[in-house]
Every structure is written in C-alpha cells, then in structure tokens.
Amino acid sequence: MAQNQVDLKFPKGGLIFIIIAVVLIIFISKSTVTIGPGEGGVLFERFGDGINTDETYNEGFHIVAPWNEMIVLKVRQQSISDEMNVLSVNGLEVKVNGTIWYEPELENLGSLIKTKGADFVRELLNPAVNAAARSVVGRYTPEQLYSSKRDVIEQEILEELTNILSDQYLTVKRVLVEDVKLPTTIRTAIETKLKQEQESLEYEFRLAKAKKEAERQKIDAEGKAVANKILSASLTDKILQEKGIDATLELAKSPNSKVVVIGSGKDGLPIILGNQ
User: Fold this and answer.
1) Which sequence ranges are marked TM in the entry (predicted)?
2) Residue range of the domain that includes 154
3) pLDDT tens digits for 16-30?
4) In a domain, 90, yes or no
5) How does strand 78-87 pair with strand 50-51?
C-alpha cells in the first residue's frame, strides 16, 4: 500500500514577515513608557553618560530608544513613619514615634537618583530623620518630651531636616511626633508629679476665691454700717413722729382693720385696735 507524502513548505517571505513583526513588537514595547499621575521619569542612557540629569519626564506617554531605560518614581507628597530610640538631655532612652511628609524635587529628580539612587528614602531620608530627631530630643528632659514641648520639638526637627537636606533635592513638608514612650517608672513619676501640681493649682484657686469672697463680704458689711450710721444721724424725733403718722394712716386704709382711737399712744400717736 503506497503512502502519499505531502510536503508543507512555508513561504519564505512569510517567515521574514513574522520575524520583522516580532522584532517590531519588542522594539515598540521597549520604546514606549507611560508615566502615571504623581510620577516623574528619568532616562538612563545605556550607551551615554548614564542618568540624564538635564531632563525630567512628566506624566503621560513617552517614546525612548529601546536600549535606554526610563526610571519612574513618585514625585507627589509622600510619608514615612518610624519609631526611633533616642536619648534625652539626661541620657535616658526615649522611643519616639513620628511621621515625615516629604516630596522629591521633580526638576532635580535625575540628580537625586544619580547621587542617592532610586532608593533614596533608605539611603538619604531615613538617616537624616534619625540624625535630626537625636539632635532635637537630646535638648530636652523626659518631662518636657512627655508633656508640653511636643509642638516645639516637631518644629525643631523640621528645621534640622531642612538644613540637612538643603542641597539634596528632597523637600520635607511636615513633621508629626505621634507618641513619646518613656520607661514605666519614669512615666509614672512624671504623671504623679503632674497630678500633684494640678491639685496644688486647684487648692490655690479655691483659697484665692475664698479670699475674694471674704473681702467682698467685708466691703458689703462696711458699706451697710456706714449707711446705717448716716441714717441714724438723720432721724430726729420729729421725723420719726411723721413717719409713724404716715404708717398709721396707711394701716387705717386697710379693709381688714377697724380704727378705734382711744386716747393717744406714746409720742402722741393714735392707737389702732381691732380687725376683721
């Protein structure tokens, strides 16, 4: 039994077309870059001088040579949080929890990557934050750190970071000290002292209030005494007699009383008896 053999021959031109199409796809995929919102790009020129520090690419679609590489990083405001072990002014170890808001300078993104690398947060920002925190916290006592100096510490750390990073193409926007952790014994002692100070202030307030009330009552009593003295000096026998007559007449007008005059009372005033 004979077998029919069929020779399949692929067209030579078709093979070349497929090869060209594959190369073109690879070329396009390597040559197009989309930079997303809040991001910036820096070109790494493989056959040139490496990172191109003269040009930064903004958001959108870009075409680059396939042998070059586009390094894309976030350039919008970002934050990092960390817990640092630092020493207070008296050598006591304190744990500080804080958050830093920072933003790379878009126009200098190439210089930032060239000098500090794409991982500039670990290489540059974290060491700067630790140095600034140690410098600032080392100026204060544990009591100041725990209570009243939080806002001042935040501002001073921000100023220290700004000085450290002044020529590093990175801007720190804000510093927030979220918590200061002291050893339990120290924290308890500080809380007890603060409580005692509060109780002392409350006691002093009550004393001051009582003193003011006593002074008010004294002034009021002295005023009444002076008034009575003036009144007593002005009441002559004739005035008293006239006041008595007026009072008697008013009483006689009352519908609930009957007027019965039986002679005269002391100082010539009539005597009123009886009522309904």
Assistant:
1) 12-29
2) 78-182
3) 767 776 666 666 666
4) yes
5) unpaired
